[in-house]
Design brief:
The protein is of the alpha/beta class. Helix content is 41%, strand content 18%. It contains 17 helices and 20 strands. It has helices spanning 10-24, 29-38, 41-47, 62-77, 81-97, 99-110, 115-126, 165-178, 192-210, 224-232, 245-252, 276-288, 308-317, 325-335, 356-362, 402-413, 427-437, and strands at residues 58-59, 137-141, 144-152, 155-159, 182-186, 216-219, 238-242, 257-261, 267-270, 300-304, 321-322, 336-338, 345-347, 374-377, 393-399, 419-423, 441-444, 464-465, 471-472, 479-487. The strands form five sheets. Strands 11-14-15-10-9-16-17 form a seven-stranded parallel β-sheet, with helices on both faces. Strands 1-6-5-4-7-8 form a six-stranded parallel β-sheet, with helices on both faces. It has a three-stranded antiparallel β-sheet with strand order 2-3-20, with no helix packed on it. The radius of gyration is 24 Å and the shape is globular. The structure holds nicotinamide-adenine-dinucleotide. The site of nicotinamide-adenine-dinucleotide has 23 residues, from helix 10 and helix 11. Nicotinamide-adenine-dinucleotide (NAD) binds at residues 159-163, 187-188, 224, 227, 242-244, 246-247, 250, 261-264, 295, 388, 463-464.
Length: 493
């Protein structure tokens, strides 16, 4: 098949062959063979040329991608677990080696966040745990021996957000492949080009290590329709979606086993016992990071009145720029909009993830581009409080006491049960807030990223599954528990 300029359209051939074989019920191996003949990954790798669509995991159609990922997964399932470890190491190596190139690509495509943080996030994605978490459980007794092992599902359908396109894809690929699965990703359309390039590089590196192509597949021109096809595809055994309320609802309604990493609006409580300098530094670090694109990032502060002014002064002392209440109100009406049907406030797309200096300019305030965060005292009418704004713009509400601060934190977190922070040295208060908020991540006396192992104990993931309860996802989130029982034998004492 040739396109108008006369070149062979390999993608179309692969997709059509895949579809025909699927309808004929032919073994998926046929697709892989045909695809390999029309576009040899080895040849592309050797020539150093960018792989065509339909090789190294890049597909234009969902069907062809699912068939290819299924074939790759079956090959992986027949290989030792060491092959999974090698594939995971290959993905990690690409994330570390190419962090500047891929980070720059993502920044130039999405135009949100901060370039230096794109590099850091790719390093962080490389640290996500792999096969080391898959330990067999065993129990022996008078009735024999039972082992519980963590088996793969098959092919996992993945949806990733624009806020961290390549980090989420890399992190998800490590976890899902470590668990023995393949995956097909529908990235956010505005972060698809960098996801495609990362996919190509991941597969190239995996092929070099274990000779299996297409373990990580990505749809090159993703749309809501291709996401819908993934949600309904009979050969996709489970879903992992990371994004806002719309995609969370769609995945939960799909009828498939779904791991849903949904939205948040993380509150911060500061009481009169807090170390205010430490709190200010931590709040700036979390809320300013990548211009507040993190779903776990501090979005609003509730401070006890007695220490409100000292906290505001500390935030300014540590490098954030203070706005007045009137300026916070004016800026909120410019960078947010109200949905007249629901009454909910939403961030205007053009301001999401922009620098504090760009936001300040909207109301005629000039500040240095390096300033990480704008903040200011607000009253409760300011719509920044309920809105997951994803901007370095932090409303601070003073309240009479810590009980009120905790109640407001619960109210403005909207029951997402995602993430909450507190700065306090009162153990009773720390416990009360943890119980009241009931969030997946609850960080005491640290910035949000401490909840993901950056400055706190624990491992990292870019998909925090609150609605479906897996929490900070790991390879175990993508496994089926299987029990194998030997009756009356193998007891050695
Ligand atoms: P978004 O919801 O606009 O898009 C996320 C992904 O879902 C995209 O790939 C998009 O194309 C797709 N999508 C959206 N609606 C869909 C639908 N109805 N059916 C199928 N697919 C659909 O979010 P975004 O702006 O890309 O990312 C920011 C959001 O993601 C925030 O709400 C943030 O809290 C959340 N997020 C959550 C986590 C987590 O771990 N819980 C991590 C990162 C981001």
């Amino acid at each position: 098949m040739r396109s108008v300029d006369g070149t062979v359209n390999e993608a179309l051939i692969a997709d059509v062959v895949g579809e025909v074989l699927r309808r004929l019920g032919t073994d998926a191996r046929g697709v892989g063979e045909v695809r390999e003949r029309i576009s040899s990954p080895a040849a592309a790798a050797a020539s150093g040329k960018q792989a065509a669509v339909g090789s190294f995991g890049v597909f234009s159609g969902v069907d062809a991608a699912v068939v290819a990922a299924g074939l790759a997964q079956r090959k992986l399932a027949q290989s030792p677990v060491g092959a999974r470890a090698a594939a995971v190491d290959a993905i990690r190596a690409v994330l570390r080696r190419d962090k500047e190139e891929l980070g720059r690509l993502e920044f130039e495509e999405t135009r949100i966040g901060r370039l230096a943080h794109k590099f850091e996030k790719l390093d962080l994605a490389a640290s996500v745990p792999g096969v080391e978490l898959l330990r067999t459980e065993a129990t022996s007794g008078d009735h024999g021996l039972t082992v519980t092992e963590f088996a793969p599902y098959g092919v996992v359908g993945v949806v990733t957000p624009v806020t961290h396109s390549v980090p989420t894809l890399g992190c998800n690929a490590i976890m899902i492949v470590a668990a023995g699965n393949g995956l097909v990703c529908n990235p956010h359309p505005n972060g698809a080009r960098c996801a495609v390039e990362a996919t190509r590089r991941f597969n190239q590196a995996i092929v070099e290590q274990i000779g299996i192509d297409n373990l990580v597949c990505t749809i090159a021109n993703p749309t809501l329709d291709t996401a819908g096809e993934i949600f309904k595809h009979p050969q996709i055994q489970m879903l992992l979606v990371t994004g806002g309320p719309g995609v969370a609802r769609a995945a939960l309604a799909s009828g498939k086993r779904a791991v849903v990493a949904g939205p948040g609006n993380p509150p911060v409580v500061v009481d009169e016992t807090a170390d205010l300098d430490k709190a200010a530094r931590g709040i700036i670090q979390g809320a300013g990071y990548d211009n507040n694109l993190l779903c776990i990032g501090e979005k609003e502060v509730f401070v006890v009145q007695a220490v409100a002014e000292p906290l505001l002064a500390a935030l300014a002392r540590h490098g954030a720029h203070r706005l007045s209440t009137a300026q916070m109100d004016e800026l909120a009406t410019r960078v947010l909009h109200r949905d007249e049907t629901t009454g909910h406030w939403h961030a205007r797309k053009e301001y999401i993830g922009q620098d504090a200096a760009v936001l300040a300019e909207v109301i005629g305030v000039r500040i240095d581009r390096a300033v990480p965060l704008l903040f200011g005292p607000v009253d409760e009418r300011n719509p920044l409080l309920p809105c997951e704004q994803m901007m370095p713009l932090l409303p601070v509400l003073a309240v009479p006491d810590v009980a009120t601060a905790i109640a407001k934190a619960v109210q403005y977190e909207h029951g997402f049960k995602h993430t909450a922070m507190i700065w306090s040295r009162d153990v009773e208060t720390l416990t009360q807030m943890g119980r009241a908020c009931d969030t997946t991540l609850y960080v005491k006396n640290g910035p949000c990223m401490a909840g993901l192992g950056v400055g706190g104990q624990g491992y990292c993931s870019f998909s925090i599954a609150s609605p479906t309860g897996e929490g900070v996802t790991s390879p175990l989130s993508f496994t089926r528990y299987r029990r194998c029982v030997m009756v009356d034998s193998l007891r050695i004492f």
